Each structure stands twice: as structure tokens, then as C-alpha cells.
From TrEMBL:
<protein>
    <recommendedName>
        <fullName>Mitochondrial inner membrane protease subunit</fullName>
        <ecNumber>3.4.21.-</ecNumber>
    </recommendedName>
</protein>
<feature type="active site">
    <location>
        <position position="83"/>
    </location>
</feature>
<feature type="domain" description="Peptidase S26">
    <location>
        <begin position="104"/>
        <end position="146"/>
    </location>
</feature>
<comment type="similarity">
    <text>Belongs to the peptidase S26 family. IMP1 subfamily.</text>
</comment>
<dbReference type="GO" id="GO:0006627">
    <property type="term" value="P:protein processing involved in protein targeting to mitochondrion"/>
</dbReference>
<dbReference type="GO" id="GO:0006465">
    <property type="term" value="P:signal peptide processing"/>
</dbReference>
<keyword id="KW-0472">Membrane</keyword>
<feature type="domain" description="Peptidase S26">
    <location>
        <begin position="17"/>
        <end position="97"/>
    </location>
</feature>
<keyword id="KW-0999">Mitochondrion inner membrane</keyword>
<comment type="subunit">
    <text>Heterodimer of 2 subunits, IMMPL1 and IMMPL2.</text>
</comment>
<dbReference type="InterPro" id="IPR036286">
    <property type="entry name" value="LexA/Signal_pep-like_sf"/>
</dbReference>
<dbReference type="Pfam" id="PF10502">
    <property type="entry name" value="Peptidase_S26"/>
</dbReference>
<dbReference type="InterPro" id="IPR000223">
    <property type="entry name" value="Pept_S26A_signal_pept_1"/>
</dbReference>
<keyword id="KW-0496">Mitochondrion</keyword>
<feature type="active site">
    <location>
        <position position="40"/>
    </location>
</feature>
<dbReference type="InterPro" id="IPR052064">
    <property type="entry name" value="Mito_IMP1_subunit"/>
</dbReference>
<keyword id="KW-0645">Protease</keyword>
Length: 166
């Protein structure tokens, strides 16, 4: 009887570890569901919107300008940020705020990206903390799940003029 209980316990622990590893790999490499908070991505993503973030793009270095990403905050590693990629390494970006009379520009260093919120007047982003290391990117948001009336792929940036091509 003790042997039978021990065998069941060991099988249960084995399955738990197995499925735990599968779940970890799925969330680490495939993606997951994220609840966004804060006003920085309005009007594209509202506070409490639920989105799907896929993680394969960051592993294969397929992040492009215009993508919305989830990244570890450079200011607080315990929290995540949701921002749009404005520039990749080597790109020239506008580092000033939209209200600034004189515009300043800089180049994104190797291994970094420039992230900004769509709500430029209410966003703490690369204009505050500088270029973000590529390794802090956790995933790329590809689909809005909730609210249902907004279900689908995300729209283009309302700040397309901030993407510089020279």
C-alpha cells in the first residue's frame, strides 16, 4: 500500500515537472496573453486592453520599426513596458519631445532599439531613459483580444512622422 502511494506520488510529480517544462517553453518561446495598463499607448492600446504577445520575433531578431513590443523597464526591472519601436540599431531618431521648438536627433547604438509610446505627451519612454537594449524585449504584440469590438491586428502608429528614413 505504501509502495503504491509512493509510486502514484512519483508519477504525479513527474507529470507536474513535465507539463511545467512544456508550459514554461510555451510562454517563453511562443507567447502569452498580456493585460496592458497605463495611457502611454493610447489610442492604439487603451488601459486594461488584453493583447497577445508572441515571443518568436525577439529570438529570431525579427523586430521591425513600427512593431509594438513588451519589454522589461530599464528603470524598474520588476515591471514591463509596452511601447512602439521607432528606431533600430544605426537608425537616426528624434530624441526631443513634440513640443520642443528645436529638434534634436541621435543614432541608436548597436544592440539597442528606440521605444516610444503612441501617446507622446503622456509616455515615459526612450526620450526619458534612452535607447533600450534588445535583450530587454520580451515579445511583440500582434493581436488585440479584448475588448471584443477592437479584436484584431493593431493599427499603424499615429506618430508615423517620427520614423526617420535618412
Amino acid at each position: 500500500m505504501l509502495r503504491n502511494a509512493l509510486g502514484k506520488t512519483c508519477r504525479f510529480l513527474g507529470y507536474t515537472v513535465q507539463y511545467g517544462c512544456i508550459a514554461h517553453c510555451a510562454f517563453e518561446y511562443l507567447g502569452g496573453i498580456v493585460v496592458c495598463s497605463g495611457p502611454s499607448m493610447e489610442p492604439t492600446i487603451q488601459n486594461s486592453d488584453i493583447v497577445f504577445s508572441e515571443n518568436l520575433s525577439r529570438h529570431f531578431y525579427c523586430i521591425r520599426k513600427g512593431d509594438i513590443v513588451i519589454a522589461k523597464s530599464p528603470n524598474d526591472p520588476k515591471s514591463n513596458i509596452c511601447k512602439r519601436v521607432i528606431g533600430l540599431e544605426g537608425d537616426k531618431v528624434c530624441t526631443s519631445n513634440p513640443s520642443d521648438f528645436l529638434k534634436s536627433h541621435s543614432y541608436v547604438p548597436k544592440g539597442h532599439v528606440w521605444l516610444e509610446g503612441d501617446n507622446l505627451r503622456n509616455s515615459t519612454d526612450s526620450r526619458c531613459y534612452g535607447p533600450v537594449p534588445y535583450g530587454l524585449i520580451r515579445g511583440r504584440i500582434c493581436l488585440k483580444i479584448w475588448p471584443l469590438n477592437d479584436f484584431g491586428f493593431l493599427r499603424a502608429s499615429p506618430n508615423g512622422h517620427r520614423f526617420l528614413d535618412d
